[in-house]
Amino acid sequence: FADLAGERGLMEVRLTGGEPTLHPDFFEIMRRFKERHVYVSVATNGTWNAATLQRLCAEPYLWVICSLDGNQATHDHYRPGTFDRIIANLKALKSVNPTARIRLTTVLTARNAGQMFELGRIAAEVQAESITVIPLRPQVRDPGVKDEMVAASRFREVIEDLIRAKERYGVPFTTTMETEYKDQIFRDPIVRKRSS
Fold it and tell me: Max Cα separation, the chain?
């Protein structure tokens, strides 16, 4: 696929999962895309073992998009016992590979809606270049998830908290929802998509 994608002019690919770094051929897949000048980003949970972290630290032009669902208590509620490991891994990655790009992705819920300013501080600590906030959507599988959703009126407060965090910590943010604050939302210039 990497050969065909490169020949056809694909500019970027995002490796996702589950956890893509667990695939036995993950680094080979990434290498093949890069050889064909396809920019690779990795959507990850950031809970890498030492060997994976070491190999990621050696990757040039690495872009990691890491899930972090709020402060330690909230994140560990959703993904038990992983917060400290993720933070340690991201800090280690940036200390060894300062050119690595890190973006934090947060699924916005009623539980973490009040933590956006704190998330800005955490993003600055791990030297993330931005935060993406994705409002929780209802899932057919679990109708109870609606109780975790953030109402539109609360979403406005979340955006205002993110703006304050951006002003304080210098970490811009994106969201998948259109808002009246669109001039305050980061537009990632790294890749301009071609239209067909």
Answer: 47
Whole-angstrom distance, CA of residue 182 vs CA of residue 180: 6
Taking a C-beta distance cutoff of 8 angstroms, is the pair 64, 15 a contact? no
Q: What is the pLDDT of residues 137-166, one digit of tens each?
A: 876 667 778 888 888 888 888 988 999 999
Specify the 3-state DSSP secondary structure of 22. helix
CA distances to 44, 76, 173 from 25, in Å: 15, 29, 32
The top-scoring range by mean pLDDT among 7-11, 131-135, 139-143 is 131-135
Distance CA 29, CA 114 (A): 39
Distance CA 182, CA 191 (A): 19
- CA–CA dist 114, 54 (Å, integer): 35
> Which residues are CB-neighbours of 102 under 8 A, at least 6 positions away?
64, 66, 90, 93, 94, 126, 127, 128, 129
Phi, psi angle pair for 53, to nearest 5°: -60, -45
